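Hi R.,

Here's the chain you asked about this morning:
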Amino acid sequence: MLALALVSAGAAAWAAGASAAEAATTDPGAPGRFGRQGSVSLSVERLFGLSHASQSSGPSTTTVSLMGSSGLELGVAPYGVPRIGVDGFLGHGLSLGLAGLFAVVDQNSTTVTVLGLNPRVGYAVHASDGLSLWPRLGLSYVNIGASSNQPFTQGQSAYALAATIELQVVVTPLPRVGFLVAPTFDVGLAGTNSDKVTQIGLQAGLMAWF
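And the predicted structure, written out as tokens:
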């Protein structure tokens, strides 16, 4: 009877431990779980990738970038500028966030400055251990300024507005740290002189949450 009791107690303890471990990976409220209610993520997005940008009236360009677009192509592919984002999770995977982007490049006596904001809403879905899906929808507004370094010249500025769709895949090999990989679609809605910029790409970045 004593041996049977010990075996039964051991089996119960093992079952309880297994249940706790399973709950830690399936419970949306488990500590350290990506997308947990009340958590906040900090991300550096579009650090490197491939994109194709086109204007409703003007040139198009295909870019393979590390740390974002470079040179005067910033004026043609402004949505590829790396951005810093903050997202808060409200519960059931729902997130609200805001990202900002800023870049300055000097080339051929011309300075190009890009400044923008990206408010967005997302929904995080836990796929498996170390892998989540996080589709997001928002708007991207950018202001593009170009000025010559030559004396007595005037600068020019323009703006572009796009609907932004990101099908984020979140890979989390370490607790609270992950990689972002996403097809991105910035569909032009408006722009200076009705010139719309549309940019499609495959982008990657880094993130952490707490």
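Residues 2-26 form the longest helix (25 residues).

Let me know if you need anything else.
M.
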